[in-house]
Amino acid sequence: MDCVLNLRYFPSPLVERQVHPEVEFQDNAKLLLSPFVISKSENEHCMIEASINSVRISIAIKKLSEIEVLLTHMLERFMALRADKFEILRKKSAHDEFDFSFLISDEHLQRFKKEELINFVLEFVQGIDKEISEMKLSVINHSRMAACFFTNGLANNKILD
């Protein structure tokens, strides 16, 4: 990621005095690098698309069960509502097969250190994976307790703690 974050200021060649992320608009194919995918498994991968003035990082989180799909979707919505606070997080993923997308421009590199941005993205991925696992365990425990109360209620037994 370090090499693709060598970005520079590059105004639009089509519209005077306008700067926009080339990776988003894709006006000129010469300014884009070919995207590459880093895969941990079939379900867990990351795509990095780079251009002269911006980089888009799209991340797919593993979803092996229906509960993980639901929890990931809930986190997507939660993060989309707070995307303005993160600055580099896109409100909607760039591609349908990915869950989260980051857009880093040359302006972000002027305000933040490159190493800090790389660490933020890496910690975000680790944190999301951990958060989904913890939420899944919590839902399973609550479901188990609810099932215990329900079956004890049906059998008219006293509830044991």
Structural class: alpha+beta
How far is the first residue's CA from the last residue's CA? 51 Å
Count every helix, treating DSSP H or I runs of 4 or more residues as helices.
5
In helices, the fraction of residues equals: 40-55%
The chain-level mean pLDDT equals 88
CATH architecture: 2-Layer Sandwich
The description of the largest β-sheet is:
4 strands, antiparallel
- Strand fraction: 5-15%
Whole-number total of structural domains: 1
Oligomer: single chain
Total count of strands: 4
Principal-axes geometry comes out as elongated
Would you give an account of this structure?
The protein starts with about 20 loop residues before the first helix and ends in a 6-residue tail after the last helix. The mean pLDDT is about 90. The protein has helices spanning about 20-25, 65-80, 85, 105-110, 115-155; strands at about 35-40, 45-50, 55-60, 100-105. The protein has a single domain, classed as Yope Regulator, Chain: A. The longest helix has about 40 residues, at about 115-155. The protein has a four-stranded antiparallel β-sheet with strand order 1-2-3-4. It is α+β, with helices and mostly antiparallel strands. It is built from five helices and four strands; from the N terminus they run αβββααβαα.
